[in-house]
Amino acid sequence: MYDATLSIDLGASYTKIAYRKACAPKQTGPFEQEARILMVDNSPLIPSLAVRTRNASKPWVFGREAANLNPDRGMEVFQNWKADLFRPRNDKDSAAAVMVAGKFFEWLRTKLEAARIDLKKCETRVAMPAFHSSAEKAVFIARCLDLSGWDDPSLILKVTEPHANTIGLFSRGKNAGSRNGAGELLLNYGRMFGQGNVYVQASREFVLHGTRGNLVTVLVVDIGAFTTDIAALTFDVTSPGNEMGDGLSAIRQEESYELGVINELDRPLFDALAQRHGFTWSDVSFNDRELLKRALYNGEPYFLLTRSDGKNVSLELGGPEDTELVTAHASTFAAAVWEKVMAFVETEKPARVFLTGGGSLIRPVAAALGTSLSRRQVTLGVVDRGESAGGATEWRSWAQTGEGLQRLATALGGASVILQAGSALRQGRAEILRPRPPLLVAADAGFKTCRCQGSNKDCCFCGGRGCAKG
Questions:
Q1: Of 409, 85, 428, 79, nearest to 252 (Cα)?
Q2: Each residue of 233-279: pLDDT tens digit?
Q3: Which residues pair with 216 in a beta bridge?
Q4: Which of 12, 132, 252, 268 shows a CA-CA span of 20 to 30 A to 309?
């Protein structure tokens, strides 16, 4: 049985949530279960934004409501609190981030409960980077969830962002398998990934034709708001039944590069545009900024409503001079990203490179990276863009959300049965499984019985040992 799973992709700018019901077929034969995306305020992208209003009746505002605010001087805006949460030293910024995280998760819990999710009856997975320092950060996030009333006895955070991202790109949220005559649950990668998938093709070429080796490597370039994360994942297509569930034999990921869309592209570009058109970028609401960026980065005009001398003024942006400015700044940013990607391409020799994250949706950036990869004879993987938003339900298939897999793949992958089938986590460049400590007893000095009592092998508090530090 594959338990119901809630998957959280906690992004610096946006949080995405996917949920998959339990896969527990009682009879022999095939089964399918689709992971679905939570729509909050009719959007799959939940702004990871918090505003402290200092209004006693409503001291905190989150999500889309916060995004639509034009904060006054009496308000505090917390935008990149996720980075502050993991600062190496305790200071006023990290202390504030802990407070914001607790308030944000408390608000998020109310949204999930309103969407009819019983947190006590599903596994919770929060994707973390594949760095050696992620274990400590996972426990920290878990404690923040606990303190915000996230009463989940099966809390799991041992899933890496690049792994979940890749599985989401491959499966598109589809989960498929069958129960055989012996009662075993077997996964069907062909049905989940599709026959045109690079993993399935490599498997067929090795098993049926003997025309290639058993390993296939993909590179995932996640261009985010504040960082760019690059990871190479190598799969052994002949051993999908290993502890990772899909034959994953290694993840190679360096620390995040401080090369994000907001600081390295948005700010210099829109400061220049603000100076040209006579408005103040900091006065524009989060929501208007996002709409403006999406339009200009796709070569479309945008009418921005601002105030000047106490009057509302409508400015049209996106003319020829603005387009030239966008192209110049995007080219500079793409060149900086390519410098990081190129090193991985030369070392890993990937069969496919996938561009994900909000930065991958910026057309001139994606086009420049695609051209650079083509010159190296490296294939750029196709990332499905989905359909227009449709439906009126809170939980929708990703194709009905109006967003592509660039933004939703990690959340979908975190809810996959593939990750539930595997139990061990490989970290960084290590290609051997991290050994699990022996079972501890509560009487051992400094330890107490964990709430999972050893039943959760992926418990972020005890690692399945049954006891954790007090």
A1: 428
A2: 999 988 765 555 688 888 888 778 989 999 999 999 999 999 999 88
A3: 235
A4: 268
